[in-house]
Amino acid sequence: MSLRVVFLGTGGSVPTSSRGLPAVLVVRKGEQIMFDCGEGVQRQMVKAGGGFHRKMKIFITHMHGDHVLGLPGLMQTMALLGRERKLDVYGPPGITEFMECIKETVQFALTFQVEIHELEEEGIVCEETEYFVQAAYANHVIKGFAYALVEKPRPGKFYPEKAKALGIAEGPLWSRLQQGHEVKLKGGRIVKPSEVVGKPREARKIVYTGDTRPFKNLKKLAAGASLLIHEATFDDSLKDRAAEDGHSTPSQAARDAKSAKVERLILTHISARYEDASKLARLVKQAKKIFENTQAAEDFMKLEIPLCDD
Amino acid sequence: MSLRVVFLGTGGSVPTSSRGLPAVLVVRKGEQIMFDCGEGVQRQMVKAGGGFHRKMKIFITHMHGDHVLGLPGLMQTMALLGRERKLDVYGPPGITEFMECIKETVQFALTFQVEIHELEEEGIVCEETEYFVQAAYANHVIKGFAYALVEKPRPGKFYPEKAKALGIAEGPLWSRLQQGHEVKLKGGRIVKPSEVVGKPREARKIVYTGDTRPFKNLKKLAAGASLLIHEATFDDSLKDRAAEDGHSTPSQAARDAKSAKVERLILTHISARYEDASKLARLVKQAKKIFENTQAAEDFMKLEIPLCDD
Asked: Domains plus CATH for chain B?
């Protein structure tokens, strides 16, 4: 079961011919988990073959227009297509008022429930059976969050031959052991899970920074992530401008990736000034000097994050 | 001096790969006059080479999301690019509240003035030296307007040879005559403008219906228009659905074009169900049976409306 990451919009605050406004879609077992929802997302979804009826959660990093203005139109289209499933929207303070004002002033006839989760503080903001989403304060010019989608650890690999050697026949006891419970055999011998099961396997983690300067807690949030999607609005030569506007440079993103020991770094929220391929290449090169497994996002780029075995 | 019409979005309520949400841009002597402003307009502007700093007016037909949700993002981008010129926005009741709520809930730092003209009733809603814009109640499911951009008649053609034959030498008297004033010659003879100037030349008129069922006043609004941009959401076979949802069919649009004696008809607000070329062709064919000079709009289609000479 692979996780699919689809970059729906990879531009900075102003869209270009090739880059739409920020949005990243993660598809996990048919569920869609979206990070940011810039203007034009619904059309990018149409082009990328996204679903309007699926189970879906949207996480907004901060209340700047380029990260949130795709929400009303996306909801309108879902309604026009007759969506019935609830939509969950998570975001910083202000998200409720924004949604309310849109519903009051633009003519809407929603066919489904929208549950808004206005986040007051960082921490685990959403928990499902198999994963959770953690928010950490980012460091932009307004309050906002970076998010980590974290799969819960999966049980270790089960070794049937070891179980059989201990005289445990295939059946309910195998399941109990794999689920981490001790088992008492007829002769009184107690078998610990560690005798027949490998150590729990690391699950996947995808981190999305939103707009931010480098911030200390990212190292913890992104520790060991399969994928770090980090903004890199300006190249290294505009480091001061980046700091002033609450953004990051490729080198800063790469240092974060390195210190958090992530597997892969994708730079996004690319300013329109790097539309030219050679300029974009310079941006990526700055990051690669520090963290080799780096790539710049492109609209409609798809990544598959496979399950890692132990 | 030609009028340029650029179709920025020609889709119905839901965008498709090839059609964005509704917006038509008219460029007249460097000024931009936009009709409707659907989500994604700012990016369509980037692609079409539109300007973010130019003198500009936006006319919204009605408050459905697909016609108005491009406004906040367009304004944000204008601000990010440092626009200083005032932007004029005209629209139906509700437009002020919408703009206010966006400014309050999405972080905006406008660098320019936005003047909102909330239209209470039909009539001339904007008058400039060389043109005016007239609104007429449309007939959709909510209150809305169709708009006509009407150039004021230009003075007739001046005939120098006729003036010379009357003994009037080139000079200030020629100007006075062309501007419609009588002139008294030295011998006492009074020359009327009609003796040396042709009849006033028809100026151009462009009409944009927005979403609407056929409505009686369109005939007057569009009378003699150079261009009628009429919605045709559904083809003739879905006439009942069109009536129910407040839309028009190609035949209805064509009948309006014919009875208003317009020069050219462009169908727009094309539903996603006609994405296939053969289905679109059927739609156009239905209109052409009644009004031959008909075409379906396409995103980024550009039309030049030349000045007509007498």
From this structure: 3-154+201-304 (3.60.15.10), 160-195 (no CATH)
